[in-house]
Design a protein that fits this description.
The protein is mainly α. About 75% of the residues lie in helices and about 0% in strands. Pfam families: PTR2.
Length: about 475
């Protein structure tokens, strides 16, 4: 996207980077809004359908934008001024895909987790939940891999219209699949809902359209019990108020741990635009004669690292260690989060080192380009870091927050991504002002992107200390206690 904005719309690097970061922030914030809507009003599956349809509309507008985009002179890199219609289509795409993400990302994982029978023993439930999260993220990483390799290749070889057209077709297929599954999936999760509200005695968080069913079901099992607020439960308003306070307390308690993911996302996701620019200025040739890896495809190494690590951990490490110690083995969520945050320091430090060497060679050796494969250490460590933290944090939030907040629980980590995008945009602005635009420049050979990376590395080191302090203050979490 940064190549599209700078190349086809003539935007400056910092301007394009800020737009993408704000888009990323919105895309990761709206799932929290969607989670509230799903938990309180619509349910999860209808919101998935709404989000998919809205994303499809956004992709259609982006495809239309490629047809009437500004004309640019590739030799001089000068583009015609953008028209209001062109900007409307472009920014409508950003808006609609962010809203669509709010529907899909807020509900998919929580909907899947709700299908598990977590009324079994604690150890079995914890193992099943971690396995679900692992394979769910593997499927997402497979999608990322295809988009960053196959889709980028099409965009590079055949142009933006065909490349974004393929995205439209893929999104249309997604909507059709969701519509087809609507007739075959159990949308109510009735047994889980009833068992939860029998255990807690709370009805205030039940979506209004489900109350009629719950009254009927609970009357069958206990004729004296009525879950409606207008029913005959004792002091229902007092009960609801107490439950809401408990939910809020649970949310406040997990926020410090959740906030530690902001800096890690700053290390990985928020540097994507600069990685593309770095790769563009490096030697991208491969052992295949005449084939160069597109600049936008290098993130596939991080995705591959993420998936391989999860597969090895789930299929090899866990069974092997369990066999050796003669009992089920799982690393606690706090341990996994701590390892992920620590690895992020090494991750961004390797990137800063590579950028220093790349820039020095480009300036001192007459434009000699460093091989882009030197970005691999950053990608590999970034994938491992994300694999440790992202899944553990989602498992932590889903386990620690009340059942009535399960959609919110699976989207809070996305709020950290949104915050990291905003923080990254703010840091870029401050760095630009403080350094008189000498660190982040149009020609990265003339700038000091390595200095910017070392600044992020220092923040990552402070984040490790912050996590240790937060984890000690929080104490032992439920899933770790069960183990």
């Amino acid at each position: 996207m940064i190549l599209y904005l700078t190349g086809e719309y003539g935007m400056a690097t910092t301007e394009a980077a800020k737009i993408i970061l704000l888009w990323s922030a919105a895309t990761n914030f709206f799932p929290l809004v969607g989670a509230f809507v799903a938990d309180s009003y619509t349910g999860r599956f209808p919101l998935i359908g709404f989000g998919s349809s809205t994303s499809l509309l956004g992709m259609l507008l982006l495809w239309l934008a490629t047809i009437i985009q500004p004309e640019c002179d590739k030799s001089t890199e000068v583009c015609q001024p953008t028209t209001p219609l062109q900007l409307t289509l472009l920014y409508s795409f950003f808006t609609l895909t962010s809203i669509g993400a709010g529907g899909v990302r807020s509900s998919c994982l929580a909907f899947a987790a709700d299908q598990l029978q977590l009324n079994t023993t604690s150890r079995t439930a914890t193992s099943a939940l971690e396995t679900l999260f692992n394979w769910y993220y593997c499927s997402i990483m497979l999608a990322y891999f295809l988009s960053q390799s196959f889709l980028v290749f099409i965009q590079t070889k055949y142009g933006w219209q065909i490349g974004f057209g393929v995205s439209v077709v893929a999104m249309a297929l997604s909507v059709l699949v969701a519509a087809f599954r609507n007739r075959h999936v159990d949308l109510s999760s009735e047994e889980h809902i009833i068992s939860y509200y029998h255990e807690t005695g709370s009805s205030c968080s039940i979506p209004s359209q489900k109350l009629r069913y719950l009254n009927k079901a609970c009357a069958t099992s206990d004729p004296k019990r009525d879950l409606t607020l207008e029913g005959k439960s004792r002091s229902p308003w007092k009960l609801c108020r107490v439950q809401q306070v408990e939910d809020l307390k649970s949310l406040v308690n997990v926020l410090p741990i959740c906030s530690t993911g902001i800096i890690l996302s700053l290390v990985t996701a928020s540097q994507a635009s600069f990685i593309v620019l770095q790769a563009s200025a490096m030697d991208r040739r491969t052992f295949i004669q005449g084939f160069e890896i597109p600049p936008g495809s290098y993130s596939v190494f991080m995705i591959t690292s993420f998936v391989l690590f999860l597969v090895i951990y789930e299929i090899v490490v866990v069974p092997l260690v369990s066999w050796i110690i003669r009992k089920p083995f799982r690393l606690g969520v706090m341990v996994r989060m701590g390892v992920g945050i620590s690895v992020s320091v090494l991750c961004i430090s390797s990137l800063a080192t590579v950028e220093y060497v790349r820039r020095k060679r480009a300036r001192d050796e007459g434009g000699t380009m460093l091989s882009a494969m030197w970005l691999s250490p950053y990608m590999i460590l970034g994938g491992i870091s994300e694999a440790f933290l992202a899944i553990a944090q989602n498992e932590f939030l889903y386990s620690e927050l009340p059942k009535s907040m399960s959609s919110v629980a699976t989207t809070l980590s996305g709020l950290g991504l949104a915050a990291s995008s905003i923080v990254s945009s703010w840091i870029i602005t401050v760095v630009d002002i403080a350094t008189c635009r000498s660190w982040i420049t149009e020609d990265i050979d003339e700038g000091h992107l390595d200095y910017y990376y070392w600044l992020v590395a220092a923040l990552s080191l402070l984040n490790v200390l912050y996590f240790v302090w937060c984890s000690k203050g929080y104490g032992k979490c439920k899933s770790d206690a069960d183990n």
